[in-house]
Amino acid sequence: MSIRLPAMSSQAPTSSIGAHRASRGIAARTGGEPRIRRTLGPGDVGAIAEQHGRLYAREFGLDVSFEADLARALYEAAARGWPTEREGIWIVERSGEMSGSLVLTDEGGGTGRVRAFLLDPALRGRGLGKRLLGELLDRTREAGYARLVLETFSELRDAARLYTELGFVLRWSRTEPRWGMERMTYQRYELAPVDRR
Hints:
The protein is an alpha+beta fold.
């Protein structure tokens, strides 16, 4: 079954609050079809961390320290002004509720970082994740990044498959106690150079 996404405007809304309200209205009018919002609104940083914490606790048994680590990283990025013109946020909403996210942050020195990539289980396997990553790669090309990095854990096999299909290479992995797990294999992927097409 394919999903229908409403056409997106290339213009950024003048107000993140207005964009948030508008996106909720559109999601409700489309009968629960997913919509991608590309602006950060009030409450989004906490909602992204909460969704990750809730789903990863249920799916992988991670504890609250995972959610805290993600929240800290996102709050630090927001405090320095993320998302700037060189960065990005993709929030998937369905029926007015957050159903996924993807984040791009500028790490300096020509390096971008992929963060907080997650889709609600009901939206997985439909090509939406690949579309989001494609948009992120387009943004990195426009911004002139030389390299992209991301850190993840080995249990996220479907996401890893997408990363490698797009040219990311596993640079290192280490197994250690982390996020309430006795053995967690933490990984770093890189894409360099970013294809300039």
